[in-house]
């Protein structure tokens, strides 16, 4: 399985079914604008919060540019054996709607 997805492919996937989107940016970044239905778990908390993840689910991981989410994916896949896919280019590549708190 390829461990990256383009923003367009993620948006098309979201139209078809409910997916798990984890945003690893800081809380303030997330509040300024995020993908609808995404869950904010800042990178520094990913190790403790991933205990609630399910092994049979796929998690789409996003950040601002793709660097933090890439690190989160490596940890989730290599250390915890979860299926994690990085949004290539991060939220900066996202052309769809963003919501804010």
Question: What does this 3D model show about the protein?
Answer:
This is Rhodanese-like domain-containing protein. This protein is of the alpha/beta class. The chain has one domain (4-93): Oxidized Rhodanese, domain 1. The chain is globular and about 30 Å long. The longest helix is centred in the last third of the chain and has 13 residues, at 67-79. Helices cover 33% and strands 18% of the residues. A 5-stranded parallel sheet has the order 1-5-4-2-3. The chain is built from 4 helices and 5 strands.
SSE blueprint and pairings:
Elements: E1 4-5, H1 7-16, E2 20-23, H2 27-32, E3 39-40, H3 46-49, E4 58-62, H4 67-79, E5 83-87
Organism: Miniphocaeibacter halophilus
Protein name: Rhodanese-like domain-containing protein
Give the key terms.
4 helices; Oxidized Rhodanese, domain 1; Rhodanese-like domain-containing protein; alpha/beta; 101 residues; globular; 5-stranded parallel sheet; 18% strand
The tally of strands reads 5
Domain module tally: 1
Biggest beta sheet summary: 5 strands, parallel
How far apart are the first and last residues' alpha carbons, in Å? 34 Å
- Mean pLDDT, rounded to whole units? 95
H/E element order? EHEHEHEHE
- Helical content stands at 25-40%
- Overall shape: globular
CATH topology category name: Oxidized Rhodanese, domain 1
Query: Which CATH top level class fits?
Result: Alpha Beta
Low-confidence stretches: none
CATH architecture: 3-Layer(aba) Sandwich
């Amino acid at each position: 399985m390829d461990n990256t997805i383009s923003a367009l492919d993620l948006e098309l996937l979201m139209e078809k079914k409910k997916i798990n989107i984890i945003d690893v940016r800081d809380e303030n970044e997330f509040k300024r604008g995020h993908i609808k239905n995404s869950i904010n778990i800042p990178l520094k908390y990913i190790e403790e919060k991933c205990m609630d993840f399910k092994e049979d689910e796929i998690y789409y991981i996003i950040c601002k540019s793709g660097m933090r989410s890439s690190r989160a994916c490596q940890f989730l896949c290599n250390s915890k054996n979860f299926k994690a896919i990085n949004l290539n280019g991060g939220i900066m590549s996202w052309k769809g709607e963003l919501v804010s708190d």
